[in-house]
Amino acid sequence: MNPGNVKFRIAPALALAACLIGCAAFSQAPVDSRENPTSPSFAISPDREQLALGNDSGLWIMSAGGGTARPLLPVGATAHNPGFSPDGTRLVYQSRQSEQWDLWIVELAGGDAQPITRTDYHEVEPVFWPDGHSVVFASDRTGTYDIWELHLSSGALRRLTGRSGTAYFPSVSEHGDVVYANELDGRWSLYLLRTGVTTLLARRTHPLQAPSWRPGGGLVVLTEQPSPAQSKLVMLLLDAQPLFKDLSRGERVEATPAAWLSGEELVYAASGLLWSRPLGSGPPRSVPFIPLVP
Q1: Which of 37, 75, 149, 228 is most buried as measured by Cβ atoms within 10 A of its Cβ?
Q2: All domains of the chain in start order, with CATH
Q3: What are phi and psi of 30, to 5 degrees?
Q4: Bridge partners, residue 77, by sequence
Q5: For the segment 86-114, what is each residue's pLDDT rounded down to a tens digit?
C-alpha cells in the first residue's frame, strides 16, 4: 500500500469506534485480556513529531498533537502495540492471524508489511532495541510469557527472562535497560533488567501494567489498578529508594504504554480517548484522532 498515491476521506465512524473500543474495555475491566486487547495503543516517533496508533481497525499515523490520521495498512487490519524504529523509518507491531498473534514491520515510506515471526505461539508487545537491529517482545513459547529478543537480520532468538509468572510489556530505554511487569499468583512486580542483572523495583497485590521509560531514563510511567473499577497513571522515580507518585486522579487509565512528547510531557489513553499531560501540575489535554480512509 503506497499512501502517496491514494486520496483519503474522513471516517467519523472509525473515530467514534476508537473511543468505543476503549470505553467498552472499561465497562468490564480496565486491564485488557492479553490475547484479546481492546484498547487503542500508540507510539511516538524519535523526533517527537508523529504519533502512530493501532487498534482493531488498522494502523494509523498523525501529528503528535493529534488531528487527521492516515492509514499505513488496509483498513480493517488488526494492529496493536506499534513501536518506532530508532531512525523513525519503520514500525513494528503485533497482528492477529486466525487467533494467533505474530510480529510485523512496515516501512513508513510505503510498501507491504512483512512478518518477522510466524510461529505457533503468541508474540506481543514489541519494541525496538536502541540500535534498531533487534526487537524485544513478550511470548508464551515456553508455556508462559517471557521477554525475548529477536535479531532481525539473523533471526537469532535470545530469552531475556526466565522468572516464574507472566511477563508483560517490556520497555527498553535508549541505554538498553529493560523494565517489565510480571504477575505471579496474584502479585504484580516491576523488574529492571540491566546488563544481565535483574532488580526488583516494586511489588503490589494489584496490577502494575505497561511501563514506559522517560527519555533519558531515571523515571518510568505505568498504569496501576488498585481495584477492578479504578486505574491510574503513576510514575516511578528510580532513585536509591524507588518512589511512586500519582499523575492522574479520577481517570480510568488504560493498560497501554504512554508515549513521551518530551521529557516533561506524555500522551496516554484514558476512558477510550487520548490525552496529553505534563509530569508536573496542569490539566490533561485531549489529543484528537480523526482517521482517514481511501
Answers
A1: 37
A2: 3-293 (2.120.10.30)
A3: -65, -25
A4: none
A5: 999 999 999 998 788 999 999 999 889 99
